Please model this.
Amino acid sequence: MTVRTDEGIDADLARVVAAAGASAARAHRGNRTWTLCGSPDGAADLRVERDGVALEVWGDVPEPLVAGVAGCLARIGALGEERAGLTEALVETNDRLLALYELSRLRLGSLDRAEMVTTILTDTVRLTRAGVALARTGDGDVDIVVGAHGGGGGEVDTTDELAAWLGSAAARFDDDGGAGVRSVGNLARHGIVCRVELDGGDHAVVGVAREPVPFETGDHKLVDAVGSTIGGALSLAALHEETMGRALVEREHDTASRLAQAVLAAPLPALGGIELFARSSPARTAGGDLFTFTANDGALRFAVGDVAGKGLPAALIMTRVITVSQAAFLRHRPDDVAATAADVSAELYDYLSDAGLFTTVLVGAHVPGSGEVHLCNAGHSPAMVITRDGVRSIRPSGPPIGVLPGIGGTEVVTVAEGDLLVVGSDGLTEQEDGAGEMFGQARLEAVLRGAWGEPAATVGATVLDEVERHAAGTAAADDRTLCVLRIGETRSDRTT
Model:
């Protein structure tokens, strides 16, 4: 396909005029005058105007033919202007596509919201040839203005004044509940503002301004794209801040949990005539299971419990239960565990009740050589006494502390050399295997039937191994705690 140029078409029209008898012809369109043929001299014999084109002819040429040629020249001129406009639009579109491409490739070297927005606005000023660009969020967390030392190809006002003008225009746009992209300004100053909805119900207003040259239509689309980019950057920054905040809280919780769990690491007391084993394995970093043993005035006092819940809240309450129990041990005789348990309940009831929590506690005491263990069980798992005759379970005599004020009754257990007292938490009996079957109280008692006379550490390790074997890789859903008291000569054995 061959495309004729304007000059080629003019030559064809000149031949038509000459063939019709013209010695010369000259055309006028706007400020342009050009000769089609011959050497025009003096006044023309005929002048015809059509659609902004005047055609002068020298010689005897029919007027209809001259009018037709003038019309052709007018149409050629209009097509030329249309082509120039399309070319300019194509160039402008290409420029905007390149700007959008550059914007899409913009590298944000930081996840700080202020730094990200500043980087985007700096590039926006360059891509739109603006004097200033701004972005501000509805909550005021972001209010950033970036300026240039020039813009729009003309004399510009100072950046501060232009920024103040754009800020006012953006505020009016925002106050009016503006949406989408809008042009603002006057004959001297020109701006574009747009609103971007953000995650969490907030929004941002983004704008550019320059003077004195107006923005083109393509700049509106570019500013809209900038708004979307800033919206995405702010969402990314918010997600990063939330993630970092959560990580900080988790780290602080982890530290506090480890400190709380360290309370259980205190060495078990050495007291002649008994042997102790105690171990607690939290389901998380820290848990609510607890135990504490003290030896004072020749007597062993102890408490084993389980605070409702898991994690840091349960661990913090666990440390308080231990502290309160240890203080109560010192105020009462070993054969008065009812008074000790009542003391613990009175100290903790309001605290736990207000928090909507509770804790099970088994309080006990034993004086070596006395042949007796005194127990008060407030809602805890059954204590088990292993004698030559088998296993006996001692069930709770009252509700957990924090459920109802006061405590239940007490029990005195007669023991002899080689007898064992085993106290665990429900995390042992409720441990499930892969099929969802629990270890159960019956299975625990079966393991303990052959344990009479064995060292406390051996009994404890055997029980925990059996629970682990039952789990067969199934994660613990609750804390596991096991305490074993053996009546007999002391072996200072403890694993935590």
Remarks:
- Residues 217-261 form the longest helix (45 residues).
- The mean pLDDT is 83.
- The longest strand covers residues 299-307.
